[in-house]
Specification:
Length: 159
């Protein structure tokens, strides 16, 4: 029996891209190159409490988005108030001087679906390398979008 370990970036492995897909238009509205371990940050305003929330994702070894951490300055609806077990992973809940951090320890999500907010519930994503994209600049308010990792078009695939 032979076991083959596939690592993105090696010969024959596709170049990876982070993509924002507009489901209404059925098109990729933003993409950027990524590699395993790269982090992406999504900053938005909580829809009920109107307070900033930052979610940090990473590119997993399985070429999917993984949840690393969430940061917020006040407790609120749909925000954790302590450690939780989600998908078999126990979060670490930290109260810090300026708010709260919830560490998700690389819990693989696959993709992330969300609804583009309004000007008051804005979403700004920072891709690796510091490239920033405001979701309202690529899709209208109320649009369903998906954040995902995929091979770059025309890149070499294994096999």
């Amino acid at each position: 029996m032979v076991c083959l370990l596939v690592i993105p970036g090696e010969v024959g492995i596709p170049e990876l891209r982070f993509e924002i897909v507009d489901h209404d238009a059925d098109s990729v509205v933003f993409d950027a190159p990524v590699a395993v371990g790269d982090e992406l940050r999504l900053r938005h305003t909580h829809s009920v409490h109107r307070r900033p929330v930052v979610e940090v994702f990473s590119v997993s070894r399985s070429w999917e988005l993984a949840m690393e951490e969430m940061r917020f300055d006040r407790m609120g609806a749909n925000l954790p108030s302590g450690p939780e077990t989600i998908g078999g992973v126990r979060t670490t809940f930290l109260a810090e001087g300026d708010g709260y951090r919830v560490l998700h320890h690389g819990r693989v999500l696959g993709t992330v679906e969300l609804m583009v907010g309004s000007a008051t519930v804005d979403h700004v994503l920072t891709a690796p390398g510091g490239q920033r994209v405001r979701l309202l600049d690529v899709a209208p308010s109320g649009t369903r979008v998906e954040l995902r990792i995929g091979p770059a078009p025309g890149s070499v695939t294994a096999g």
